[in-house]
Each structure stands twice: as C-alpha cells, then as structure tokens.
C-alpha cells in the first residue's frame, strides 16, 4: 500500500509539471489554433533564468523561500517576455498564412532557442540548487513524499485555480473566451485580438517557467535540451486531455504522470513510454478530440 | 600429427633467430588499427636486438596482412606456422583473432593480441595459447560484480541501464555475472534518458529491497537517480561505470555524489615508459602513434620477456612464464591470469570522497 502511495505521489508530481506546461500548449491552441513547439524551450529558459538569478541573489545573501520566490518571479517575467517576443516575431506575421507556415515557424523557433542557449550558456549539465526548502513537518514522511514534491503539487493546483478564475471572471479572460470561440466576431465586437493573443502567450510562458523552476529545483540539474522531452510529454498531455481545454490539459498531465509512474512501478520502466503513448492512441481512438475536448465542427 | 608437431617444435631450437609473427590489418579500411602494432613491435625488437637479442639470438619480425577478415586470417595463420613463427603478436580484430586462434592452438604457438576485446576469446578457456594486453568488453562489469560481492558483500542487487549500447551492454554482462555467482538480481530494467524524473524506478529499487544498484550509462541520469535515492533517505550503494566516472557527475550531483562507486580506466598517461615509447615512435616514424600502440608495445615486451625467462620458445614454458612473471610495460606492471587476460591493466574502482574520485585499493 505504501508502495502504491509512493508511486501515486510520484506520478502526481510528474503529472503536475506536465500539466503546467500543457496549459501553455492548450491555451495557445485554443486561441489561435497553433501548436507552439517552442513552448518546451520556454520551460527550459525559465529554468536557466532561475539558475542565473538564484546564483546572483544568493551572492547577495538571500536564501530560503524568499530566494525561491524571487528567482521564480524573475524567471517568470523573463520567460513571459520570451513568449511575448516569440509570438510577435515568429507567429504574428504568419497569422493569415496557411496553418502549416506558423507550425514550421514554431519548430524553427524551438531549434533556434535550444541552440541559442547552447551557445550562450553551455552544452554541459549544470547543477541546479535545491531552491525549495525542506519543511520540518515533512520530515517524518520524507521517505514517501519530499517537500519539493508537495510544493510542486500545491503550486500546480494553485496555478490551475487562479487561471480558471482569471478566465472566468476577468475582462481579459472573457475576451480570451470570445476570441477562442470566433476570432472575427470578437474583433467586430471590439475585442483587441492582438492583445488577447499576446496575453495568452505571456500567461502560458509564465506557467511553463514556474514548471521549469520547480522541477529543476526538485531534480537538481538542467541543460539546454531539457525542454524537448518535457515539451513532447506536455504536448501529449494536452492532446490526451483535449487540446484547447484547460481542465483537459491538467487532467491529461496527471493521467500521463500516473500512467508512467505505475507502468514503471508495476510493469517495467523499459515500457514507460510505450504505456504513455499507447494510452494516448487508445484514448484518441475512442475520443478523437481528447478526454475533455469538444468535438467541434469545422468552422465555415 | 602429434609426432609431426614434436618434430616441428624440435626444429625451433635449430633456428638462429626468434621469429615473431605480427599478423593484423595492414591494408584496407582498418589498417589504422593494425599498423601501430607493427610499429610497436619494430621499436621493441630493434631495442632488444641492439642489446644483443634474447638468449643469444636476434628477434625477427614476420609481418602478415589479414585485412581484419576471418577467412584471410586463417590463411595467414597457416602461413606463419609454415614460416616457423615462434610467437605471435596479433591479430588485431576480434573476428580475425578468433578465426586464427584455433590454428595457432593446434600448432602450440603462444598468441597475444593488443586489441581483440571480444569476451569469448578468453572466457571459455578454449584457447590456452591466447593472451591479450587489452581489457575484454566486460571488464568493467566483472570488476563491478566482484567488488559488489567480495568487497561490499551485497546479496541483492538492482541492475539499471539507459537502454544505450554502452550502458545496456555492460548491464547485461553485470546481470549475467551476478546470477552466475549466486547473487539475487531483484531488478533489471532500462530507463529513458532525459526523462523529467526517475522517482518511480527509485521507489521500485527500494520496494524490491536491493542493497546496491549497478547502473550502466552516463552521468546525467546517474546524477538524477543518485540524488533521488539520497533524498528519499535510501542508503542503497550506487555502483556505475566509466560514463559516470566524470567530474561533471560530481559537479552536478554535488553532495549526493558522495560515496558513489564507479569503474574507470587505470591512468597510464603519467607512466614514464608510455611517454618514452610515444616519443620514440614520433622520432622514428615522424608522427603520433595510433590505436593500440601502447598495448602492442606492452604485448611485445611481455612475449619476448617470457621467451627469455622460459629459456626457449617452448609452449608450456612460455605460457608458464607469462602467467608468473610481472613485466614493466607502458601500461604499468602486468602479468596474466588463468584465462589469459592481463592483470594490472584496464579498470579500477573509484569512489567519490570529499568531492573527488579516489581509487579504491
């Protein structure tokens, strides 16, 4: 039973990270129907920014939770700026083009950012400081669940709730929903679609950066390539849950995390990915638009 | 046949030179593996002949090209035997070596390869005439297993690898030897390199009650696994390979790297004989030596030393000398074990202590 619980919590942690990144994929897709392949790179840049910020801040004498929060905030701001800029440079000029063009642009952006970090930083693996502090009250159960895992799960839950409230109750959230439903109509009704799209990229990037900071702090190492696998898995999660749907992205992330964790725990880690992608295929056969995705008819 | 070989062996004493056969890839795509061995043999033999040879006889090199092809190697072997070669330095490639070994064995000629790493050549004891001055492919795995069982006295192990050629190959050898030697392998699995985390496999290691983890692969994944084990307060011993015996591992894993074991090559770069041999090569041949040069240099020294100590090129006496004599070579002080693998070369066990890898004596 303890083993089951451990695998459950491990899967929950991993799934939470997938969910944080998947939210960015799903939001962007929901608004402009683009799969932003550079999103995984934003996650990686978030982690690198936090590493640099944390190194500088700890030289200034900061430590503990304030270091985590400040480094996290810097990473979020920096990554959001990246997300915003990528949209302006690589996607906005192509918004009226065929759907394939922005997709290629996104792949190009992903390769560019990876190589940029490779050249500007390093190709080596770097040690990432454990920014998440060890809580005293977690000590008795630290063999089952670590403080960092608790922080990851709680943060993901908070982010999801805040995002849902934001989209439901704020003006810009309403504009987002309107744009997602019908871009032209929203524009006619006075919604500044460009601003909505920018906002979507900013929020998505911020969430990815949060994920990057948390998982790097938990795992303790980063390099320029970490965004690729995390991005692929998060994209899978988004599709699994129903791309375009926010609760779907979270659900997809968690299901993927649990599948991987239990597959490793009870079957074999050799087949971890086989189970993860096998599940995706299985679900898409029965629900082609994902678990919570709406089967939308083609817009005319 | 036997009578013929006895006659044959008898005729050796009548020769006025010691004939060293040097078969290997001397032309074709793989010539760069074979030619350094010829150069090494020439350098050593010239040195020895300048000092008057051994047992009052000069040493003569018979060079034969096998192009690394097994079928050519068999012909070459027969040719060397008919040329009355006393000892053989070669072959270079494992396949060619295997094809020729039986022929030399029937003719009772000691054969020493500087480069054939195939495990089976020494493992089964089929070729009592075979020796080598390079570690077999499974050297790290057998060192890990011996160390875990004999030094650390563990009984239940988990063997994990990264599904790559290098890591999985070693892990499979390690698993095989653990089973052979009666240890319980409670887990044998591959992980996905670059995955977000490895908490599930770490939990599984704990759940199965492994006392030690043997990991085949490289340092990034090893660092993640070790850190997660330590964070979960597990005291499982972690043993890995050359891919982890890397400063980056310690840098990335930080305090969690402490106590980790890893096998790594014995350092020969500071060996004065190795430096001298390399410089000699540069002076005589005008370029840097290539692959297996030092191994071949060491092999030639060992072979000729054994002949000298044995007092003749008699098979049994030379074999005995090889297994009992320790010879100073560019690879260090070496001798040979029962199977014909060199002792004193290859790999050693290291442990992280205070942030650096220290050789475990």
Describe the protein's topology.
The complex is a heterodimer of chains A (300) and B (361).
Chain A: H1 2-32, H2 39-59, H3 64-91, H4 100-120, E1 126-127, H5 147-169, H6 171-181, H7 183-188, H8 193-219, E2 221-222, H9 226-241, H10 246-267, H11 272-286
Antiparallel strand pairs in A: 1-2
Helix pairs in contact in A: 1-5, 1-8, 1-9, 1-10, 2-3, 2-4, 2-8, 2-9, 3-8, 5-6, 5-8, 6-8, 9-10, 9-11, 10-11
Chain B: H1 2-14, E1 17-24, H2 31-50, E2 58-65, H3 70-82, E3 87-89, H4 94-106, E4 110-113, H5 120-123, E5 130-132, H6 139-151, E6 156-161, H7 165-180, E7 184-190, H8 199-207, E8 212-216, H9 219-231, E9 237-240, H10 247-253, E10 261-265, H11 272-285, H12 293-310, H13 315-324, E11 327-329, E12 332-336, E13 342-343, E14 347-353, E15 356-359
The total domain count of chain A is 1
Please trace the helix and strand order of chain B, writing H or E for each element.
HEHEHEHEHEHEHEHEHEHEHHHEEEEE
Structural class of chain B: alpha/beta
Spatial arrangement of strands, main beta sheet of chain A: 1-2
Radius of gyration of chain A (Å): 19 Å
Strand count of chain A = 2
Proportion of residues in β-strands of chain A:
under 5%
Annotation, overall tally of beta strands of chain B: 15
